[in-house]
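User: Please predict the structure of the protein below. I'd like the answer in structure-token form so I can feed it into my own downstream comparison script.

Assistant: Understood. Taking the following sequence of 148 residues as input:
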Amino acid sequence: MFLGRFYHNIDDKGRLMVPARFRAYLTPDGVYVMQGFERNLMVFPARTFEAVSQKIQSMTFTEPTARLLRRLIYSTANHVEIDRVGRFLIPQFLREAANLDVSVIVVGNGDYFEVWSPEAWEEQDQELRDVQSNATRFADLMVTTSVS
């Protein structure tokens, strides 16, 4: 499971080092990197992306919102290899879409991880630190600690 946040740099060739703790959850199949829903990137292990892809493929293409989601996912997703030292190349258009320069924040998100510019992450982090809003916005999600 991808947990925590890490401060890394993108090198001059556009490569990002995967945090050491995250590498244990990756396979030689590489990762899929795509535009996120905020100004960030989402990075999926191959098996996770394939599961998401199957769900998207099962959506009807006659639904306009489903077509938009398909376009977002498939037009921005790129399969990339992890090199022997743990880096992967972020395509230029994705770096631009997420406003990534040199410094980035890599954030665990359970089955996948995200890559944020420091500025965008600061805005997101401010929102996450709003205790009152969190109590309201997450109440309907029915999160429980019971194990079934």
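That's the full token string. Residues 64-76 form the longest helix (13 residues).
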